[in-house]
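Run log, item B.
One chain of 413 residues. Sequence copied directly from the ordering sheet:
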Amino acid sequence: MIRRLRKKFVLLCMGVVVAVMVAVVALMNGLFLARANASLDGMLALLADNGGDFPAGDGEETPPAPRGPRQQDWGGVDVNSPETPFITRHFSVLLDESGDALDVNTDSIAAVSSEEAVLYAQRALDKADSGYLGVYRYRVAATDEGTLVVFLDASTQLTTARQFLVISGMVTLVVCLAVFLLALLFSGRAVRPIAQSVEKQRQFITDAGHELKTPLTIISANCEVLEMEMEKNEWLTGIEKQVARLRKLVNDLVALSRLDEGRPMGEEARFPLSDPVCDTALAFPAAAGRAGKSLRVEVEPGVFVTGDEAALRQLTAILVDNAVKYANAGGEAAVCLRGGRHPVLTVENDCRNVDELPLQRLFDRFYRFDPARTGDGSHGLGLSIARSIAETHRAALRAEKAGEGRIRMRVRL
């Protein structure tokens, strides 16, 4: 139990850290890419406004134009810098209404020929007004002469974005690894108070169980002596029944305490589960018949599992007894075992109020759906023991609705 608690603590810490780091990295990379796109789109807008080239980009010795409202630092790039035309690789294509090229400008790029530029432009017309084609960011603009498609080499920005993503991803991995090691290191200290409380509770149950066994044994012996000295009567019979009930309660509490430690109740071995399930289930048809109910058993032969045979036999007995005991009058209980990589044992019965049952609470200790039912010989520990046995065998036991008016207990081994 403590080991599971430490594992959950570590997983919780890791889950929170991973979620936060992934969100931070995604936000940072998204903002970085959005900033890069804004810079590129600003440059493309300037090129489109000037027919696919920079102002005074024809090599004439003209002074830079004064900064206008659309020429001030497009996306953080000073477009009035005399170096900007020389560090920016771009090309443009003017297309007519039918998509044929009217003019191609590839003077500012060496990696793209005129024919390739036309193909890029025609592909861009089939896409959105702006976006990426390979490493080129493009923009489609309508002019009086036709449709102008301007392309800008974004390889530097994309490479920087990829490098930033790789670096941030590596930082995330390092941080997650560090948190994992720290959580693993300090998880024992974090759950130590809970472990001590659980250990004290377990020790109390074990000690109380041993202390109660002695007076119960004495009371039982005294009842036997009184029965020999005087005739058996209803008072002595009542005492014996209550002593037997208390002895069963003590044994169940001690068994639960032992199972909470995560230890099987006996030695583990590989054995055919079909035999104990069949033997255990076939011991209940008579009891079901006396109560006016029926029991159907379907067990697939040759189903092997690894575990404690006695414990799994007890688990089966608890589930079948529970199904027979709480099935509707005149109803049917069914036991089914199916093989495969993960064998499945199901026990179901008629239950008219299945829609009202809190199915997950059925495994709580001392839980009763109807608190008034206290005289049926049950303490509300059976399903708790069954789940603990299942957990010690790395199996999953759950309650589920099995159709209209039926409830099923399902064990996946």
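Observations after the first pass:
- Residues 92 and 150 are 4 Å apart (CA to CA).
- The chain has nine helices and twelve strands.
Flagged for discussion on Thursday.
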